[in-house]
Every structure is written in C-alpha cells, then in structure tokens.
Amino acid sequence: MRPASHLGADPGLLLIADPSLAPTVLEQVAPTLARGGVSLFSGTEDASGPSSAVRRRLVLYDGKLLPSHADLLRRDPPALLLATREPESGPTEWEAQLLGAVLRGGSLVPPGLAVARQKLRRMKDVQHASDAASMVVQEAGGSKVASQLAADVLHELAVNALLDAPVDAQGQAKYAHRRTEVHEVDAGDACELGLAVDGSRIYLEAVDRFGRLTTGPFARALDSYGGRVQVNSEGGGAGLGLRRMIEHSDVIAVRVLRGRESRVLCAVDLGDARRRAGFPKSLLFCTE
Fold it and tell me: Which one of 129, 177, 225, 268 has the fewest beta carbons within 10 angstroms of its own beta carbon?
C-alpha cells in the first residue's frame, strides 16, 4: 500500500491507498470525504518516519476483506478500512458520512433517518428486537434473506452489548462466562439498541456504557476469513456470531470511548443475495 496524503479530523489521520486501485479513485477521495464531514489538511511528513507509528491510518481498498487485514486492526491505533465498491469510483457518500461520524462521536446512524431506540435488560427481549428488525426489513420492501440476516446481526449486537460488555467494580466480566444462565442483567448494565432503514439498507446500532470493546475479536475473526471458522471462546463467546455479523454486513462501524461507551453499527443491504462474505465491506474501528 502507498501513502496518498495526510487527511482527517486530526493530524493523526493518514490515507493509505491500496496499489490495486485505479489512480482515478484517488482523485475522488478528498471531495467525497469532505462532504462526509472528514476535514482535510496538507502535510509533508514522511509516512515512514518515527512518528507515523501513532498516526491513525485510513486504508482505502477494494473492500474485499482478507486475513491480512487483521494486522491492520491490531495496530495502535487500529486502521480504518474504507471500501471502494466499483473499480473506477471512490468510497460512497454514505460511507464517507459514516466515517465522519465515527471520528466525531455520537450516533452512527445516518442523519435524517427516523431511529427507533430501546433499552434492553432481558434476554427474551433480544429475540423480540431481532424479530422487529426482520419485520422492518420486510415492511421496507427488503428480501426475506435480508430480513433474516438483519435479525441475526441485531441478535449478535445485542447479546455482545448485554452479556460481554458489563464488568464489576474490579473489572471482572459479570455475565460473559455464564451466558446460558443469564435471563436478565442489572438495571445499570442495560444496553441501548437503535434501528433505522432507508431504501437500500437497514442500520442496526448497539451501545453499552462500559467502553471495553477492542479490535481483538474482529482481528481473530479476520484471521481465517474466507476459510473455516476458528472457534475461540476468549471473552465468553466463541466468535461464530461475530464472523457471521461481518459476513452479513456491508459496513461495521465501531467507536469506543475507553471506560465509558462502546457503540457499534452494522449496515445490512436489503437485497436478496444470501452469501455476502465476499462482498465489499468497510470496517471502521475508532478508539479514543
């Protein structure tokens, strides 16, 4: 990959372009990101210099996730993986807007959409929320396949936020290692779900108040991406649901405020394609 320019909401964001991309794609990046609220700046510092290790990298690529991308997530700070969806075009406008939201903070659901939000404490309500997501997709004219995928994604988001995120005063997980035994979490451990839909996709967001989410589970999911799923029970879950969540989604956006909040959004296309693992995907992970 080649450094393309310095770019971003702070001097730490550096654009790295995949060499397989057409040169014309790079010409479209700056205005598209600017319209998404990602500000640009000029700089001359050599990207290979010693201070580049702490720069936040924005990797523009063809959107085809590979195991090699796991190492980009393991960087500190993790790289942001932004997809191009056509050979001769840059990132989409809506993904540029989402990138801006990830960097700024606040809700990750695209502006202008009506968002249904609810607090969740009980495991039985997770299934109700998943069923609601499925129904919303169908009412929006989405396919039956998309309705099932949306339900699966929301279930994974909710379970992770409800059972894996909470810790006690000593920092020990409260529910992650006894998932099958938990029917309801303490009031202070409730998570919030958000759901919105437009003519192309459904946006599913989960928020917890703990801010413990790391890139580790995502990187492990990518280590074997495209091959057999590697079961890993670290952290309480086996990683199978997260792998499916990545496969089903067009975009996964994550913003973590350490010790305060983790916010995860998945966008699921409303079309009828069943197998989506090889489709272009953006994976935007920002930790503050």
Answer: 177
Task: List pLDDT tens digits, range 17-68.
Answer: 888 788 788 778 888 888 888 865 444 344 444 444 467 889 999 999 999 9
- Mean pLDDT, residues 181-208 taken together: 96
Task: Give the amino acid at 224.
Answer: S
CB of 225 within 8 A of CB of 66?
yes
DSSP collapsed to 3 states, 50-63: HHHHHCEEEEEECC
Question: How is residue 111 written in tokens?
Answer: 């502006």
> Within a 10 A sphere around the Cβ of 169, how many other Cβ atoms?
5
Q: Rg for the chain (alpha carbons), in Å?
A: 18
CA distance linking residue 211 with residue 228, whole number of Å: 30
| Diameter of the chain measured on Cα atoms | 56
Exposed / middle / buried, residue 204 (Cβ in 10 Å: 0-12, 13-18, 19+): buried
The amino acid that residue 42 corresponds to is S
Count the Cβ atoms, other than its own, within 10 Å of residue 227. Answer: 8
Give backbone dihedrals phi and psi of 259, rounded to 5 degrees, phi first: 75, 0
The total of other beta-carbon atoms located within 10 Å of residue 121's CB is 16
Name the 3-class secondary structure at 190.
coil
Q: Are 82 and 58 in contact (CB under 8 A)?
A: yes
Counts for the chain of helices (H) and strands (E), in that order: 7, 10
Specify the 3-state DSSP secondary structure of 282: strand
Compute the distance between CA of residue 134 and CA of residue 6 in angstroms, rounded to an integer.
41
